[in-house]
């Protein structure tokens, strides 16, 4: 049994390795760019290569479930092995599944992804709050019981999101902050805020939880954008990148280091400018 909370483990990883989450997104396009066929065996080769390249330099690694699920049970078996490899390497695993459903179904998702006895158990999982933040309760309870965490979509990186999410993001952030109150160094409820946003429309000062910020690289965000948006909460931001580090199997590690160090430098410059 793990006895440190997800927040404590995440804090330690961020302090030791710097601010970056690397996605494992084995899309057909990337498999082709790597000279691999599109098959479960190729998925495994891709995932193993990324794990070996980044497990000891990225604070968090985020396998995207859809790219494994498209191969049915054989793909899910590769996802299970990838999670096991990452956990054995000591990396924090954020499983990107973006789940959200009514209470009883949510409890089953929680059992699948957060219960430490499950073959798919991760350190944290992404959740969608569009059935109401309260519908996520079973997952949040399970996360706490299993020393795991959740990342709830608040303002996502994609351009289509703004019209819908701007109406609800404030409420999601407030509900996450309420769960996180009193926890140290972070509560179990992180949020997702795109690094592509033109500006932050809500303060994150009282969240007391980690902020996953996807959109670096392929979606156009830079380390400077991360610092501009998240400088005031720099200790809590986890910028996330997939395609821009995965494009070339020979350069996954060097690109990971470049993104990580650029984010660290820009965030610390933002700190200095605020003093
Ligand atoms: O939850 C996520 O990880 C996520 C949230 C979000 O707002 N935007 C977003 O792109 N993502 C995921 O982050 C990854 C982005 O990939 P790249 O654009 O290749 O860096 C994909 O796996 C997306 O599913």
Please describe what this structure looks like:
The protein has 275 residues and is of the alpha/beta class. It has a single domain (6-274), classed as Aldolase class I (TIM Barrel), CATH 3.20.20.70. Helix content is 46%, strand content 15%. The protein contains 12 helices and 8 strands. The protein has helices at residues 6-17, 28-33, 40-54, 65-69, 72-89, 103-113, 137-145, 162-165, 169-180, 223-230, 243-246, 252-274; strands at 21-24, 60-63, 92-99, 124-127, 149-155, 189-193, 211-214, 237-241. An 8-stranded parallel β-barrel has the order 1-2-3-4-5-6-7-8, surrounded by 8 helices. α6 (103-113) links the parallel β3 and β4 (124-127). It is globular, with a radius of gyration of 17 Å. The model has no long low-confidence stretch (mean pLDDT 97). The site of orotidine-5'-monophosphate has 21 residues, from β8 and α11. Keywords: Decarboxylase, Lyase, Pyrimidine biosynthesis. This is Orotidine-5'-phosphate decarboxylase. InterPro entries: Aldolase_TIM, OMPdecase_AS, OMPdecase_type-2, OMPdeCOase_dom, RibuloseP-bd_barrel.
Descriptive tags:
alpha/beta, 12 helices, binds orotidine-5'-monophosphate, TIM Barrel
Small-molecule components bound = orotidine-5'-monophosphate
N-C termini distance: 42 Å
Q: Could you name the CATH homologous superfamily?
A: Aldolase class I
Number of domains: 1
Q: State the share of residues found in helices, binned by percent.
A: 40-55%
Average per-residue pLDDT, rounded, comes to: 97
Radius of gyration: 17 Å
In the CATH hierarchy, the third-tier topology is known as TIM Barrel
Q: Which ranges are low-confidence, i.e. pLDDT below 50, for 5 or more consecutive residues?
A: none
Tally of helical segments? 12
Strand residue percentage: 5-15%
Biggest sheet: strand arrangement: 1-2-3-4-5-6-7-8
Structural class, from secondary structure content? Answer: alpha/beta
CATH architecture descriptor text: Alpha-Beta Barrel
The total of beta strands comes to 8
How can the largest sheet be summarized? 8 strands, parallel, barrel
Order of secondary-structure elements: HEHHEHHEHEHEHHEEHEHH
């Amino acid at each position: 049994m793990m006895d440190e909370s997800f927040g404590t483990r995440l804090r330690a990883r961020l302090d030791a390795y710097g601010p970056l989450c690397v996605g494992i997104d084995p899309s057909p396009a990337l498999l082709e760019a790597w000279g691999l066929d599109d098959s479960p065996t190729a998925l495994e080769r891709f995932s193993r290569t990324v794990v070996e390249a980044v497990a000891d330099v990225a604070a968090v690694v985020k396998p995207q479930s859809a790219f494994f699920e498209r191969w049915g049970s054989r793909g899910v078996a590769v996802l299970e092995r990838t999670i096991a490899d990452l956990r054995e390497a000591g990396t924090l695993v954020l499983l990107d599944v973006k789940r959200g459903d009514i209470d009883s179904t949510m409890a089953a998702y929680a059992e699948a992804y957060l219960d430490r006895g499950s073959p798919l158990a991760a350190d944290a999982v992404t959740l969608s709050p569009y059935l109401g933040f309260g519908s996520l309760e079973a997952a949040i309870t399970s996360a706490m019981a299993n020393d795991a965490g959740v990342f709830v979509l608040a303002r996502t990186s994609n351009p289509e999101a703004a019209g819908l999410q701007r109406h609800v993001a404030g409420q999601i952030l407030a509900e996450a902050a309420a769960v996180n109150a009193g926890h140290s160094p972070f509560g179990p409820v992180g949020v997702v805020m795109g690094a592509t946003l033109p500006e932050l429309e809500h303060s994150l000062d009282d969240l007391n939880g980690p902020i996953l910020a996807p959109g670096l690289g392929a979606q156009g965000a830079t380390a400077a954008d991360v610092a501009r948006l998240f400088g005031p909460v720099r200790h809590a931001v986890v910028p996330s990148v997939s395609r821009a580090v995965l494009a070339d199997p020979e350069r996954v590690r060097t690109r990971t280091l470049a993104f990580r160090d650029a984010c660290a430098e820009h965030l610390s410059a933002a700190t200095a400018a605020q003093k």
